[in-house]
Amino acid sequence: MNISIIGCGLIGQKRALAVQDDDILVSCCDNNKDILSNYATKFDCKSYENYKDLIDSNQSEVIVVAVVNKYALPIVSYALSKGKHVLAEKPLGRNTAEAKELVALASENKVILKTGFNHRFHPAIWQAKEMLDQGKIGKLITIRARYGHGGRPGMEKEWRASKDLCGGGELLDQGVHIIDLCHWFAGDIKSVFGKAATKFWELEVEDNAFALMESASGVDIQFHVSWTNWKNIFSFELFGEDGYLRVEGLGGSYDPETLEFGVRKKEGGKPDVQFFDYPAEDLSWNMEWKEFKNAITNNREPIGSGADGLYANRIIEAIYESSKTRSLCRL
């Protein structure tokens, strides 16, 4: 496939590195000339300063959009309207209205829209989903999750601290991954009770968010996402009638990625436990790219679709509403 990437920052580079041997990265675009020039040289591709010029050049079937949240809507919309398949980094727009518009455009133009939910493709998460689906821990009862870091000096001046540029804070930044995983494992959510708060950083968006959710199938979920953890953390736990699955770490600064599988003993006592370790290299970007290509080839919805991105935004808005009204929000 011929691919173009719009947004040459950290995530844009991860996407370029995930391109398969039988793909060609033909062009890139960024509004920062120095970043654009370095990127084009590094990945040996043509550079454009204007995203419409890149898309209109008609060199690629697939466009990857990895830009600040505010600019995703016009760029992704233009690409979809020109008949391009698009992988748009999470979140899918700043809110439900933007995501809904993008999903409708993809359907109207009969192209594939994927939300960049690479966490689904971390090997420990992927194996946990397979084991749950195989009935290894029985019927799912509860989910408990934590995700976050400690920020950095000057964070209040970054784009993530801007309500206009981002649409929200930590709930939209890292929380959207947790919400998507909860939806993937537990199914549709029927109610949420949440709190979004600014606890430490001088921001116009939240640096912490807490939520209790219940799925339509009766799974109770709790999570906390935070920019005040001070140490990077990722923890995703699933508890079933017959056992549990616990994913810890994402590699790198989030510590090695591991999966713990425990089987409950009917007579009680310490469960039988197995541990699975994964290599330090983050393979999620490569696995997600393979899935996206397969979806395009077979003309099907990808795992982590545009509809999934829209759904995650709906949950986020419900949590914001619950926090504002201090009441349970039903979906």
Structural summary, described in words:
The chain is of the alpha/beta class and 331 residues long. The protein folds into 2 domains: 136 residues, Rossmann fold; 183 residues, Dihydrodipicolinate Reductase, domain 2, CATH 3.30.360.10. Helices cover 35% and strands 27% of the residues. It has 11 helices and 15 strands. Strands 14-13-12-11-7-10-9-8-15 form a 9-stranded mixed β-sheet. Strands 3-2-1-4-5-6 form a 6-stranded parallel β-sheet, with helices on both faces. The longest helix is centred in the C-terminal third of the chain and has 20 residues. The protein is globular. The mean pLDDT is 97.
Topology:
Elements: E1 2-6, H1 10-17, E2 24-29, H2 33-43, E3 46-48, H3 51-56, E4 62-65, H4 69-81, E5 85-89, H5 96-108, E6 113-116, H6 123-133, E7 140-148, H7 163-166, H8 170-173, H9 175-186, E8 189-197, E9 208-215, E10 220-226, E11 233-240, E12 243-248, E13 258-263, E14 272-277, H10 284-297, H11 306-325, E15 329-330
Parallel strand pairs: 1-2, 1-4, 2-3, 4-5, 5-6, 7-10
Antiparallel strand pairs: 7-11, 8-9, 8-15, 9-10, 11-12, 12-13, 13-14
Helix pairs in contact: 4-5, 5-11, 9-11
